[in-house]
Amino acid sequence: MDEIVLLGINHKTAPIELRECLAFSNEETLAALETFKASPVISEVMVISTCNRVEILLATENQTKAAETAKTYLSASKKLPVAKFEQALYTHCGDEAVRHIFKVAASLDSMMVGEPQILGQIKEAYHTASLKKTSGVLLNRLLHRAFFVAKRVRSETGIGDHAVSISYAAIELGKKIFGSLEGKKALLVGAGEMAELAVEHLLRNKSGDIFVANRTFERGVKLAQKFNGQAVRFEEIVDCLQIVDIIISSTGSPDFIITRDQVKGIMRIRRNRPLFFIDIAVPRDIDPAINRLNNAYVYDIDDLQGIIEENIQERNREAIKGARIVDESVIHFRQWYENLSAVPTIVALREKMNSIAETEIKKTLQSLSHLSDQDHQAITRMANAMVNKILHDPTRLLKSNEDHGEKSDHLDITRKLFGLDE
Amino acid sequence: MEIIILITIIFYLLSTAGYFAYLFRQKNYLQQTGYYLLAAGFVLHTMALAYGFIQSGQIPVKNLFETLSIACWAIAGVFLILQYKFKLKILGIYAAPLLTIVMALASRLPKEPVQVENIYNNLWFIVHIIAVFIGEASFALACGVGLLYLVQEHAIKTKHHGFFFRRLPSLELLDSTGYGCIVAGFTMLSVGLVSGFVYAKLVWGKFLSWDPKEVWAGITWLLYAALLHQRLIAGWRGRRAAVMAIIGFAAVLFTFFGVNFLLKGHHGEFTRW
Fold this sequence. Notes:
The complex is a heterodimer. Chain A is of the alpha/beta class. Chain A has 15 helices and 10 strands. The longest helix of chain B has 36 residues, at 123-158. Chain B has helices at residues 2-25, 28-56, 64-86, 92-106, 123-158, 163-167, 171-204, 212-234, 239-262. At the A-B interface, helix 8 and helix 13 of A face helix 5 and helix 7 of B.
């Protein structure tokens, strides 16, 4: 009976240098699957390789040999002595392997708990394995369960809620102020990766016009083109505050770009429609005193960082619930797995009984040549019915979900009693 | 009659439980359950009032129990409409317990109607009662929305995003819902006052008798009129509008209780016990 074995390294066990060395490209994955498939000890295999982890998932009858084979292959194909990566490598068998793959799929083992990409990456790895026909009964079932667990964890816990990046946290805050960001106009002051990312998030939320102000007007024009927006001169910023709702600022200016008094005057003209300032710059661009004005909200980079930390803590709390769901699913999987091992015994038992019945019917009928065809059929039916009746209770016992130790005892006794292994 | 009121209170109580469960667990079916329970309570409440109306042939507003009961009925009705229209799910944590507590207290009051002279059950009188109570119910909900606004605004301004920040909706939704409540309340209060004047003219021969209740109702009306005016002209929104909604409702409460307990006048009998 095959067992599930998992070998891997991840961001917790290996530094980036080692992960880079051991990562598999698409071609390398295909080659690895071919090699493992050819190995006599490995019956099923798939390879997951992302920037944070490399995992080799195997189904094998001989755990030690299979693990050795995988290690040797890693060492040979990556041209790295086993000793170099053995420390970082973890090997899980049976339930532990199942638990690990469930946790990885549900993003509970990720560097950023709850990040959604990992599930897609595993799906892709599984797709590759099934195209190459290296996955079988065990891995098919295991992976489908893993996808199901991941979905359940995501919908039943909050691990995917709450932003964990600066730009996304800013957008979520915007939604708490404006409700919907649809049609809200934004002004980008300066430039910078985080600020531009925030603008992209805004656009994805169907925001309205984007204005871009830069000290050098030409740069502003270029950036505005990128967002299909409009460049304004640096001196026009204050006028611009009349029409925009969200200001994202990220300049290298040592002084405040927008002061409290400017905004105070603007709020009257805006008839108090809310203004949301996102200040990503250090030193700050937006006078923090603006936050004390009615209907004006200022968040600087530290405030946003604080929110993210709260959100990460929240996700970690939710991850505990996720782990419970995983534990539950591991138990379900084990039950299925054990049932699977009962099936060959039941089949063998039935085959043996049927063959005995068949032989005996033949013998008996030879000496009873006076019987009609109808009588023959009746006798055959009776023999079959007896086999079925006799096997009914033992089959039910072997198929039942009783505890592990007792079940393997029963399987063992059945095999010995009926000489199924002879 | 008693038993219907009791079952109504139980429904409001269960609805409260539903909304609080929603507050903590954030599962949508919980707030839906709360909503349907409150709707069921409202239907029973309506039946109780209709029964009272048929029994006496008059709108049942003849003692403090009955006026509070009809006020709760109006709040429940306005809340159901508001929830349906604005989808402000969390407002149930204000409305449902408010209904439960007021109804539970009111049901402890004596049920004997006061004998009032000069009550003529004409259309103006009915419109006066219904409109005033719906108006006050809208103001009660505007006050609740205003409170939620202040909580949420405080969280955003101080940058301490705690329990309520995650659970309360956006400032924009709270602000527009509060505004909707005040517009509706103001309209109904205006209708209620005008119909009251007409009724007074028909019955007592004069529009205004400078009864304290009338005066305070006028003051309340002016307060909300000022709030709406400022919103339309100067864009009073957000925090200031929320604070005003709360102050306005305090004036409503004083008009409802204070005037009757502290001052005299021809409305006094209706809230006596």
